[in-house]
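Predict structure. Chain length: 160.
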Amino acid sequence: MNKKIMQSPLGPMEFISDGEKLIEVLFLNEKKDPNRNKDIPEQDDTVLLEATRQMKEYFAGNRKEFQLPLSDDRGTNFQKAVWNVLNTIPYGEVLTYKQIAEYAGSPKGCRAAGGACRANNFTIIVPCHRVLGTNGSYTGYSGEKIHLKEWLLKFESEHK
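Prediction complete.
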């Protein structure tokens, strides 16, 4: 496994790859365990180079969708269904947690949909920032990270 750190307008991002697929993309300040991935060498591979290239294009306002190989060996069937729904939300648009739950096959699973968003290992690439509360509020992104969601949605609305 390899990792690459990229500076973004929202702070440093960490990309982890197994050389064939992305394993994880997170803002460093988003990691629950700061020592997680510390033993993975910072070394480029083709997946990391492509992922950071596409992310830079996103932050330049030139990329609306990502075309990257993502590891899919984690998550429950419901979480995977939620992540699939997230990938259908167009750039600059939003759905509610209730809609996500319905589309994922569990109409009463709003909280579980929120949990699946929290378990998403691919920040921005699998766009959980495009999900709002039923009343349109910026919920999720656990408290202090709401500013990330607000920034990303504003950025996307300006670059539609």
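Summary: The mean pLDDT is 91.
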